[in-house]
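Thread amino acids onto this structure.
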């Protein structure tokens, strides 16, 4: 889409080009803003210069914003003619993943995820894509896209595809960041799985299993709609995707399906652990009940004998027998020993 042969004629920035990158931070919410031609970095710019650069043939402007103010979004809107509804959505998080076409531009919402203190924290990235520009707006839990920019700049041949490649790189990075979350949860699930059969699950364990299943469902609901987004990008009419790039978006869709399948598998394992934990707990309670019943039966023998000979009757057998006390104790001992041996043989004790 962007020919490398056009690079030599327009590498020089326009008059009044912006200051070095570290000065860009003076614009609140602006993380990075650069111009690329033929896959190579041309200049770092201010927002006020973005529209002029994007209008140049074979140039693409890539702007990254982090929780920008409404004033910053309005300035970006003025440069690229973005739709009011898209700007309104980009100003607030908690939108569902989607792809919306506004005139000659696309507005994409993707959900990001990170593991924060054992819980999945969700963020949101809004992406504006049009001819000659890509604008990303991050909200909430999200990894910086500086790594995406650095990787892209290190491969000019790929970056020469312009906004198509940048869009793919951002979406692919978002999906890749689901994997560390799933890996951490998988490790925790394996730890619970190792001890669930050894001891009953406590209240904290049951609560943790419930939290993990719920968070995984939220992650699935955040990731799976991106499959439809990628499928639609393959056949976008306003922003036709090059045939070579269509395969990359298809690969992102396949990756999301793989993530969804892994989430489903983890949820099934968590459901099994929950059921197994309940069964182990019930077995543990049954064993305790058996032991209590066995000891109660053993103690019932001396209790019964003592109860009988504790009655205040004048005429009772063996009361005046010289060996009566020892004989009764012997009978009690034999009965108790027999019951104990029987319960041990049947694994009640």
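Threaded sequence (349 positions):
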């Amino acid at each position: 889409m962007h020919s490398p042969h056009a690079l030599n004629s327009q590498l020089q920035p326009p008059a009044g080009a912006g200051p070095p990158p570290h000065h860009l931070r003076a614009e609140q919410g602006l993380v990075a803003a650069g111009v690329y031609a033929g896959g190579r970095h041309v200049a770092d710019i201010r927002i006020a210069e973005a529209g002029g650069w994007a209008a140049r043939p074979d140039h693409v402007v890539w702007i990254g914003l982090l929780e920008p103010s409404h004033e910053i979004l309005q300035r970006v809107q003025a440069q690229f003619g973005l739709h009011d509804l898209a700007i309104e959505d980009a100003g607030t998080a908690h939108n569902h993943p989607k792809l919306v076409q506004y005139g000659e531009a696309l507005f994409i919402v993707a959900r990001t995820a990170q593991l924060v203190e054992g819980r999945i924290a969700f963020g949101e990235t809004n992406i504006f894509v049009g001819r000659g520009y890509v604008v990303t707006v991050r909200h909430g839990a999200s990894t910086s896209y500086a790594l995406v920019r650095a990787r892209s700049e290190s491969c000019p041949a790929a970056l020469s595809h312009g906004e198509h490649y940048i869009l793919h790189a951002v979406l692919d990075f978002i999906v890749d960041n689901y994997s560390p979350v799933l890996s951490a949860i998988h490790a925790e699930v394996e730890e619970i799985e190792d001890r669930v059969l050894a001891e009953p699950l406590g209240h904290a364990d049951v609560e943790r299993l419930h939290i993990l299943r719920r968070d995984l469902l939220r992650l699935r609901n955040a990731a799976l709609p991106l499959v439809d987004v990628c499928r639609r990008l393959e056949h976008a009419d306003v922003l036709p995707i090059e045939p070579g790039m269509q395969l990359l978006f298809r690969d992102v869709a396949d990756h999301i399906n793989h993530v969804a399948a892994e989430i489903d598998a983890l949820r099934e394992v968590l459901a099994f652990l929950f059921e197994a934990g309940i069964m182990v707990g019930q077995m543990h309670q049954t064993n305790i009940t058996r032991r209590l019943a066995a000891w109660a039966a053993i103690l019932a023998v001396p209790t019964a004998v003592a109860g009988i000979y504790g009655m205040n009757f004048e005429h009772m057998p063996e009361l005046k027998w010289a060996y009566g006390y020892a004989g009764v104790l012997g009978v009690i001992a034999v009965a108790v020993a027999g019951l104990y041996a029987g319960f041990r043989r049947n694994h009640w004790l």
